[in-house]
Amino acid sequence: MKITELDYPLPADLIAQEPILERDKARLLVLHKKTGQIEHKIFYEITNYFQEGDMLIINNTKVIPARLVGRKPTGGKIEILLIKQKKALSNEVEWEIMTKGKYEGDVFIDDIKAEIRINCDGKKIIFSMSPQDVKKLLDEKGFMPLPPYIKRQPSQSDRQYYQTVYAKANGSIAAPTAGLHFTDELLKNIANRGVKLREITLHVGVGTFKPIKVKNLEEHKMDSEYFEIEKSLIEEIYLVKKEGKKIFSVGTTTTRALEGYASEEYEDMGTDDFKIRGLTDIFIYPGYEFKIVDALITNFHLPKSTPLALVYAFCDSEKVKKAYMEAVEKRYRFFSYGDAMLIL
């Protein structure tokens, strides 16, 4: 598949710059896979598409305020994005980071001194800070790592709105945005319909948003992301499917964790009697056969992106393209803080 097939025209003013304050009042485009029928709803009406015995699986990862602003010894400003922790000792922590430019050397973040170095595999790391200093900086000085298409500085309110109401496992540098539409009340209403609510964890890293730089989609390589799934959940999933009920997956991150496990496209990070832990680099694009997920709740994705490729794999690409064009025509809000889709 050519990367150009994942492109579509999008007016810039449809890219949501602010969150919807009443989460479940976002618009919802419902796309039926078999017929291509499209419905236009409000997100809280999603309850009508569940049946007793279905299962809704969410990603409980929590976004860390990983964007820090420091200064060089010369006084120049430098923005730092913490990507993932590499090493932690009692008095020193090492993080893989991203910065603009090629700076290497000392950096001051508030009153804490650290160092930026390039390690043997060419990746930037920051170290010489204690774990306590990192926690203090993130708690007091960190900003939520909003994606670059949101053309404003992060605000304090983003700490609330760029986070799902069920987030609890620290580790992501981006929100699993399909989950931003749920409220505690909506989840309670879904459960009251006899739907099983279950959680997994996948920590969202740069791999989810890594641009596709090859012409042929099949040549793209995903970065690995860490996930955890309870072993008992796997047993429940197959029982639900055996009974003819549906597995609803909230977002492409939840889907990648589930399908990465089911397709055995993951590196085992040490399972125990209760939990599966792994790193998955699964890349889902058209031609992939889904093994777990029956219904997908997702946002509208960037052109030429890996999440859009996953959506194309889940539903006929022509039907998805038609749905996207109708969303543009009806002025849905796109991307992280935008509206939602349900594909059944």
In terms of topology, how is this protein built?
Elements: E1 27-31, E2 38-42, E3 55-59, E4 61-63, E5 67-71, E6 77-88, E7 93-99, E8 105-109, E9 112-118, E10 124-129, H1 131-140, H2 158-161, E11 169-172, H3 184-191, E12 196-202, E13 225-230, H4 231-242, E14 247-250, H5 251-262, E15 266-268, E16 275-280, E17 295-299, H6 306-314, H7 317-329, E18 340-343
Parallel strand pairs: 1-18, 3-12, 3-14, 4-11, 14-17
Antiparallel strand pairs: 1-2, 5-6, 6-7, 7-10, 8-9, 9-10, 12-13, 13-16, 15-16, 17-18
**Helical residues, percent:** 10-25%
CATH architecture title of the largest domain: 3-Layer(aba) Sandwich
List low-confidence stretches.
Answer: none
Shape: globular
Superfamily (CATH H level) name of the largest domain: QueA-like
> What is the CATH C-level name of the largest domain?
Alpha Beta
The CATH topology of the largest domain, please? QueA-like
Task: Please state how the strands of the largest beta sheet are arranged side by side.
Answer: 2-1-18-17-14-3-12-13-16-15
Derived from helix and strand composition plus strand pairing, the structural class reads alpha/beta
Report the count of strand segments: 18
Average residue-wise pLDDT: 94
Give, in order, the helices and strands. Answer: EEEEEEEEEEHHEHEEHEHEEEHHE
Q: What is the number of helical segments per DSSP (H or I, 4+ residues)? A: 7
Percent of residues in beta strands?
25-35%
Q: Termini, distance in Å? A: 24 Å
- Largest beta sheet, briefly? 10 strands, mixed
Using only C-alpha atoms, the radius of gyration works out to 20 Å
